[in-house]
Amino acid sequence: MTTLERVGFIGLGGMGRGLVKNLVTKGVAVVAYDLNPAAVAVATSQGATAADGLRDIGDCRIIMICVNSAEDVEALLTGADGLLARPAPGLVIVDHTTGSPQMVDKLDRLVRAAGGRYAEAPMTRTPKHADIGKVNVLFGGESSLLDELRPYFELYAENIFHIGPLGHAIRLKLIHNYIAFANVAAWCEGFALAARDGLDLTQLIGIISAAGARSGMLDLYGQATLDGDFTPLMSLANARKDVRYYARWLEDAGLPGFMAEAVHQTYRQAALLGHDGESCTAVIKAYEAVTGVEARVRPLAADGTG
User: Fold this and answer.
1) Contact at 8 Å (CB) between 12 and 45?
2) Which parts of the chain sit beneath pLDDT 50?
3) Tell me, what CATH number does 187's domain have?
4) Phi-psi category of 56—alpha, beta or left, where left has phi over 0 and alpha has psi -120 to 50?
5) Model's pTM, two decimal places?
6) Spatial CB neighbours of 293, under 8 Å, sequence gap ≥ 6
7) Which of 142, 206, 216, 275 has the largest CB neighbor count within 10 A?
8) Residue 264 and residue 132 share a domain
9) Cα–Cα nearest to 140, from 169, 173, 118
10) Which of 290, 21, 6, 53 is nearest to 129 (CA)?
């Protein structure tokens, strides 16, 4: 049986928390770091060791990062106290963050210049899947590096996809996320319009779910949206960030991006209205602000009326 070495883990949000839980409970020693003390407390309650700072993390050869943006990853790597200031021999940075094609190349160069290796490994699925060890890992890079990391990935992933060379994984992840968030924006718009004209929202979601407009995001979040549950399993801020990265990639590729910009501005409007910290489905609140009507399914009163 292969003995897995200690791992440093930075970023204990919805996805990172579940990954750490699975690593620890399946026998891997984890040194965990996050700016949120409450998140660190959860990780330590599961058996991880709390890092006093990045220097404690830097003592690990394998360091996993799952934070909000590619720019956050760069900040963790660089600087006097960054992870690359005193890299451990054989350093491997495993980047689970949803970043951008431009930043993946830059981060790889930074890590290689410090004598380490950079593993591109964005994920799909939700924090619920992370908690039960069933995320999808998308890996871009050399097969030999994937072979080295696979025993760790298998502790929290149901599927491990070797997408191709470095940079290919994040590109497929951004296409996936853009389509997912465009779908959310579309059905939120439809829900708001239906509410404005007094249509039966329960009938609406049933009809969509029974035909071609059904989607995974609708299955996950549609009913919760109509129930007014905007728990940020996938925050609006992260959705907006991912669509922005996708739109920037389209522009760099020389392709028109009319739909991407429309979706990006839809999320940006909701953010400007103060909903960044809520679920990505809180984009419906921007439409509600325009219509003046809430798109909600009201519970029945005691007499059976809505």
Assistant:
1) no
2) 1, 300-302, 304-305
3) 1.10.1040.10
4) alpha
5) 0.92
6) 192, 195, 196
7) 275
8) no
9) 169
10) 21
Which residue from 152, 279, 146 is spatially nearest to 220, judged by alpha carbons? 279
Q: How far is it, in rounded angstroms, from Cα 34 to Cα 38?
A: 9
Query: How do residues 191-236 score in pLDDT, each as one tens digit?
Result: 999 999 999 999 999 999 999 999 999 999 999 999 999 999 899 9
Contact 101, 170 (CB under 8 A): yes
Q: Which amino acid is at 133?
A: G
Q: What is the dihedral of CA 213, 215, 219, 220, to 10 degrees?
A: -140
Q: Comparing C-alpha atoms, which of 36, 89, 84, 93 is closest to residue 64?
A: 93
Residue range(s) defining the domain that contains residue 145? 7-166
> By C-alpha distance, which of 132, 233, 220 is closest to 184?
220
Last residue within a domain, chosen from 166, 182, 206:
166
CB atoms within 10 A of CB 206: 11
- Three-state DSSP at 185 gives helix
Stretch (H or E) spanning 62: strand 62-65
Query: How confident is the model at residue 298, as a pLDDT?
Result: 74
Domain contains 297: no
Cα–Cα distance measured from residue 154 to residue 135, given in angstroms and rounded to the nearest whole number: 10
| Strands 92-95 vs 117-120: parallel, antiparallel or unpaired | parallel
Return the amino acid letter for 119. A
Q: What token pair was written down for 38? A: 């409450």
